[in-house]
Every structure is written in C-alpha cells, then in structure tokens.
C-alpha cells in the first residue's frame, strides 16, 4: 500500500530472501529424507492437549497415501482405532487398504474385540476401504506406516488419550481437547530403512 518506491524495493528484497530461505529448508529436509536421516521426535507431556490424530498425522497424509499399516499389540480402545480410521477416510489421502496387526484380547474381551473390528471393517467397506485384520501373539512394537515412506512410532500406540471424565465433558468428542498420557512420538522416512 506504500507509495515509497525505496520501501517497496526493500520489502520485495526481504520477501525474496524469506522465500529463498524457505525453499532451502525444504530442500534440506528432502535431502535428509532421501538419505534416510530424517527423524523428528514429539514429546507429549502428561495431561497435554492439542494432540489429536489429525494434528499428529495430517502432514504425512499426502494425496498419494493409499495403504496404511498399523501394528499395535493392544488395540483395545476400539473407538481410538475407529477415530484413526475416520481421519484416514476424511482425506486428503485416498486410502484403499488399512492393514491392522494386533493381538487377541484375553478372556471375555475377545468376542467384543472381534465384533467391534468386524463392525469397523463393514463400515469402512461402505467408503471403499478394506480393513485387513491379522493377529499375532508375539507382536511387541507399535508403529504406523504409510505407503509414501513415512513411519510413525508412538510409545503408547493409538491409545495415548486419557478416558474422558464423563460423556458430557469437554474432550469427549474433540480429541484436540482430550488430555493425553505421557508418550513419545518418533517420525522417520523409511525410503532407505532396511527391513530385516
């Protein structure tokens, strides 16, 4: 809006400088990814809020993501897994297949676990998404992988949210407002990660 040509010139130079710096940072991160050195760590403090699945995963869910692998021995809070699936269905990615590897719930919870997973499976089918469920008694680590090369390891898996205080308490519906358990989230790019 200024009429001063000298000011305009200075502003243009500054804008150009910032744009160049942003492009350099972008190239540096891309090189780190290519070299397999990219590692980002997020520490979620006890009772912290603002860590919904959208906040954690959205930047890695590019349009080319069509397949997701979730390995978590303790998928017991099926609403959390359902919430994760809802995020995938909403996009911007075009997920067609979700692979879940987990362990059986022990005792009386097994039939509830199975019927819940079958219901999620059927519901995803209505959106053109296949949920492939497999069980392992020896699975230990928790990780989520996208077919664009991103891998996320969460110490507590998808169940890092605390239970809400009641059905009508803030945070019951909006996970950004839900307090979390303390955990660490590690993000890697797996292009050059060797599978043993």
UniProtKB/TrEMBL annotation:
Domain MITD1 C-terminal phospholipase D-like per the UniProt entry, residue ranges: 50-189
GO biological process: midbody abscission
Record-annotated membrane-spanning stretches: none
Origin: domain of life: Eukaryota
Listed GO CC annotations: midbody
CDD domains: MIT_C
Pfam families membership: MIT_C
InterPro entries according to UniProt: MIT_dom_sf, MIT_domain_contain_protein1, MITD1_C, MITD1_C_sf
PANTHER family, per database record: MIT DOMAIN-CONTAINING PROTEIN 1
Protein name according to UniProt: MIT domain-containing protein 1
């Amino acid at each position: 809006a200024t009429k001063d040509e000298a000011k305009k010139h200075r502003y243009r130079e500054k804008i150009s400088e910032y744009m160049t710096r942003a492009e350099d940072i972008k190239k540096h991160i891309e090189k780190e990814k290519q070299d397999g050195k990219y590692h980002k760590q997020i520490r979620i403090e006890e009772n912290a809020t603002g860590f919904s699945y959208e906040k954690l995963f959205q930047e890695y869910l590019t349009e080319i993501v069509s397949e997701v692998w979730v390995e978590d021995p303790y998928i017991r809070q099926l609403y959390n897994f359902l919430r994760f699936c809802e995020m995938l269905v909403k996009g911007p990615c075009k997920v067609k297949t979700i692979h879940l590897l987990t362990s059986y719930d022990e005792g009386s919870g097994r039939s509830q676990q199975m019927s819940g997973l079958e219901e999620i499976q059927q519901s995803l089918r209505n959106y053109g998404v296949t949920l492939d469920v497999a069980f392992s008694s020896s699975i230990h680590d928790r990780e989520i992988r996208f077919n664009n090369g991103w891998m996320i390891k969460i110490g507590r898996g998808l169940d890092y949210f605390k239970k809400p205080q009641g059905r009508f308490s803030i945070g019951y519906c909006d996970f950004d407002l839900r307090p979390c358990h303390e955990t660490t989230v590690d993000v890697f790019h797996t292009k050059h990660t060797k599978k043993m």
